[in-house]
Amino acid sequence: MTDQPVTNNSTGPTLSVGAVIGARPEALHDDAEVALDLALGHARITVSWADAQPKPGALDGGVVETVRSLAAGLRAGGVAVWVCLLSPDVPLWFDNEGGFTDERTARHWWPRWVEAAADAFGDDVDGWVPFEAPFAMANRLVPADPRKHGEVVDTLLVAWRDAWRILQGPLPVAASLDVRAVVIPRDDVVAAEWARRDEHLRWHTWLRALRDGMITIPGRADRELADLAGSCDQLGIAVSGDRSLELEGLLHRTAEDGPDRPLAITFRPTGPDGDARAEAVSEVLASTRRFASSMPIERFTATDLAALASALR
């Protein structure tokens, strides 16, 4: 199955509109029903590594069956299923060994989880997002130490390459990079230095890595990593906001600086209530549809299913 364009209010024949479903595990099946009712083009399920692999090397049969059953129901209704393999709740045993802050631990266990997930779900899904928002992930793990932060960024780039080596093939693999416009302060030297580092990591580091296979991290020597160049089938950006996005500029810069790939957008709406978030989704989706007439945008994914439903109805 390939993504089909959503039928509700859709004008672009190539743009698939979808949502992240099951932010709460107990809501998975309810969310799936909404996705089917809306005739979405796709839905993304984030499989909790912590739940799926509570012990090293062992998959939880209940989690596997839940994901397979959910995917089967969605696909039977014409909704393509994408799976994300990493959320903040990594297994406790992995975290106790250092997780992604320890290069050897990450190099040992992360590829084994990706292999296990590919074996368990590969016949039941339509695409992969190994992980999303790597800049935010590194900041969450090491927020205030530039040296250790750089080490984590490097480890995450290797993790991405390892996932690509395992997953590339019949199903598309999509990146989802947390880019945004960065303003460099003029009157604060320290703040300006941090902003330049932010700019470099959000844009230059990840996009150049995916384009050329070269890892460039401030404070570390540049190095080339085998099989990193071109390691995605869709080049996605993850953005958030309340409607004041500079989306066109972000998309153009992503397309110019990254590898030559179709584009995808994941939008996390912000706002004080459901109405405000629905309005944000409606506005950003309308902009995406306009841009899709001249740019190779293949997917729009909202992280708030209720807001997307309000925007489409």
Mind explaining what this structure looks like?
With 313 residues, the protein is α/β, with parallel strands linked by helices. It has a domain at 134-232. The chain is built from eleven helices and ten strands. The strands form two sheets. It has an eight-stranded parallel sheet. Helix 6 crosses helix 7. The protein is globular and about 50 Å long. Mean pLDDT is 93; it is low at 5-12.
Question: In terms of topology, how is this protein built?
Answer:
Elements: E1 16-21, H1 28-37, E2 42-46, H2 49-52, H3 61-76, E3 80-84, H4 92-96, H5 103-121, E4 127-129, H6 134-141, H7 146-167, E5 174-177, H8 189-212, E6 214-215, E7 223-224, E8 234-241, H9 247-257, E9 263-269, H10 274-292, E10 297-302, H11 305-312
Parallel strand pairs: 1-2, 1-10, 2-3, 3-4, 5-8, 8-9, 9-10
Antiparallel strand pairs: 6-7
Helix pairs in contact: 5-7, 6-7, 10-11
